[in-house]
Amino acid sequence: MGCGHKDDKASLASSQIVSFSHQPHQPPSTPASKEVWKKGGRMFSVLLAVHLALLACTLVSSGAFEKIAVHDYDVFFLLTVMMLTVIIWIIFYLAGTSRCPDAILCKDSHAGPVWLRGGLILFAIFSLVMDVFKIGYYSSFYSCLSAIKIIYPIVQAIFVVVQTYFLWISAKDCVHVHLNVTRCGLMLTLTTNLAVWMSAVTDESVHKAHSKLKKNVTEEIFRWLLKAGMRSSSAEECNCNSQICQIFKNGYFWLYPFNIEYSLFASAMVYVMWKNVGRFIDHHSHHIHHLKFRLFRRTFFVGIVLGLIILVSGLGVLILYEVQVNSSAESSKKSQALTMYYIFNIVCLGLMSLVCIGGSVIYRFDKRDMDRHKNPTRTLDVALLMGAALGQYAISYYSIVAIVASTPRDAISALNLTYALLMIAQHTFQNIFIIEGLHRQPPKEDHKHDSHQKDLYGLTFVNINAVSLRVPDSGSTLAPSAASGTEAIHPSDLVRSLTAPKKMNWRRKFLREISMFLLLSNIILWIMPAFGARPQFDNDTELNFYGDSMWPAIVDICLPFGIFYRMHAVASLLEVYIMS
Asked: What does the pLDDT look like over 482-508, one tens digit per residue?
């Protein structure tokens, strides 16, 4: 395929030529021509993504149950084909589309910020390690497994490397050639990442359920597995007796959360690229802000220190919880672990809620304007925050109904109720704080004020005697000779200019402290459920109320969204911190 423009590109070019020839003062593209790129090609790519997503979801969900004649290697075969297709398209994009003349006329400065791409690379590294562990695990008994079980992690590793490189260099592109092919390729990439995410979440849930079932098969909490006929991995039917095999097996399951987050991060960045296909950016309204990340400057360290205390304490609670709940069969140990977990989360969520309310109050005194320009990245951030929070909202409301309607009520039930209520409040207040912070204009430096302030500083330190001698008691303006050719300066202006930076920066300092504290707190609240601390499966109240089939299904569906919410909140809070 050559670098020829598609129909919508040709119509844009013709409209621009007409506008230049007849109306030289009119912008090169009219609003009507800018809307051409949003029509047919977009709809076709969306339909393609919907059908592929439904097919992948059907296979993944069917492959999780024993009674359905869909095996896990069927799922792996589909995912392998999808990933290979995406790899071929990315190579075509990098080698062909992006090198065409006038292929990328502009870039979206808001898309793919460096901290988001840095997080993508971090998760990609752990995903590659997970693939290495998978290859080592399946290679230990390749004779009794299908070949696709070994091919799949190899292809996934190649897919992660190619996609990460592609997103690192092309996340800001606004492509104007091969529009329909690019839209379909990006939607295929998005669907593939979501399919890999669904497969990883399902595989992790089945593994955790079977691990608990093997430890104590008499527990009523796991009887729903037997009723549902949950499938075990085909690899478990082979012998894995060697020490190295066990290390590979346990290692790649512990790395699943990183691969899950990688797929979601990549999906978000690909979606923004899809929105920017064919987009023309008005540089008069699209301000480019060069922001510098200064972690240890202009801060009181209160937010960082308090956040680190929460983070370290949470890691200790997580370790004790895993030891007492998963390694001990005593009910008293289990109750102590749940009590410790709920108390820590209640304190953490309470502090985060209060801090978010304080940040929203500080915004009322912030004089920065709201940014109302079109920004697909910010729109996606807001949608993901609001959508992902629904998962935790659902779990919390189900818990509240079960606790209130159940009898008798003990101390753990009271803690669980408080935890659920605070979880709802914290998500709500944090979303308000983050969304308002994302819509604030970055701080602007007033050059006129800066030059005037510089003159005052020069006047103060160079000709301080003249100033002190020539200022009358009546408060009149300074003599022109004292200003050495500058404007007449009032003494009150001098004092105000010298003290202005301290008065102006207190809001920004407090907002930075709040953002950093919330960032560190969200990290530990992501780590705890992602690495096994899930009291929803260890508390009997909800299980007894909803049944041992309904409640685990609710948690398995909703909890991945809650985990993703925490990690996306970390990325958004980092942006709010830098914008403050």
From this structure: 444 444 545 555 445 444 444 446 778
